[in-house]
Amino acid sequence: MHYYGGIALLLYFQRDYSDARGTLTASFIAFFVGAATVIYNIDLWSFAKRSGIHFIIMLITVYPILLLSGWFTISTVLDAFQVLIFFVLVGIILWLVMITLAKVFSW
């Protein structure tokens, strides 16, 4: 996140505010996603439990970031719900891709 934050700061100083905000937002998302992956190292928990807890952590951290990012127009509760649906669909796709890669490469 340090490098992304530095890039965001440089973009801000160059008055490229939109890209600075987007880069900083992406760095926060990357930080929380990366930090939460340690959950998958807890071998005492079932895979379903690890996946469920990871989803809850993403819902608590990444979803609000998406709502505040400026990437989506949020003017009604329905707009926030549509972002939630997008969040869930992208999460499912990424989860399936990572499961497939883990099986292929025996992670």
Automatic annotation (TrEMBL):
Positions of transmembrane segments: 20-40, 52-74, 80-102
Protein's UniProt keywords contain Transmembrane helix: yes
InterPro entries tied to this protein: DUF3021
Name used for this protein in its record: DUF3021 family protein
Keywords, in A-Z order: Membrane, Transmembrane, Transmembrane helix
Taxonomic path: Bacteria, Bacillati, Bacillota, Bacilli, Bacillales
Pfam families, alphabetized: DUF3021
